[in-house]
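Appendix B, example 12.
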Amino acid sequence: MPEAKLSLRAVTKSFGTQAVLKGIDLEVSEGEMVCLIGASGSGKSTLLRCINQLEPVDDGTVWLDDLDISEPGLDLGPVRRRIGIVFQSFNLFPHMTAMENVLLAPRRVLGETPHAFRPQAEELFARFGLAAHQNKYPDQLSGGQQQRVAIIRALAMRPEMMLFDEITSALDPELVGEVLDVLRQLRQEGMTMILATHEMGFARELADRVCFMDGGVIVEQGPPEQVFNAPKVARTKAFLRSILPN
């Protein structure tokens, strides 16, 4: 197995008296796509936020290559440039065009001038089918288009890894496919990705590994065909039975 790109060791996280993550161990290899599944409240979103240190862990460690990024006092700016994250809410600035939204972080964080970086941004818009929409404002775009802009904005920082937190859950069903097509393309390009998702068909089709979370722990993980077709743990079986058609 390739050396782990990301390694979580005994990670815990609580909010007040509520323990949300209870000793998570997870390794993700370079170029691997891992899908986190489980009911709302199982800890998927918190796990993603702990990975790129939007939430500090209470205990345990998070390693990116050979760097412990959970070490207290570490400068997290460079870490967050290496790990992009996209949420279910698009969080685009409404008074900026799609292109201006994408150019903002490279300018402020990387020191890129808009003129110098614009060709790279235009290439990203073209790659994901939005070349004709780059100068529109968010309210002129569909939800699927806005989510693709949010993905392009994260990719503009040239991350080594991408995290996606239920990025299709706020979309109308007919718009989900165009966002999933972006993830398919990223997978083909070898991007390391971790997704929290309710899209079981997508996880079954494209994930290298599926992790079922429940009650703040990873109950079961394995290749999609094993987890979906022959789950080994009763809690996994019960969850899949509740959400998948017979």
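Strands lie at 4-15, 18-29, 33-37, 59-64, 67-68, 83-86, 161-165, 192-196, 209-214, 217-222. The chain has nine helices and ten strands.
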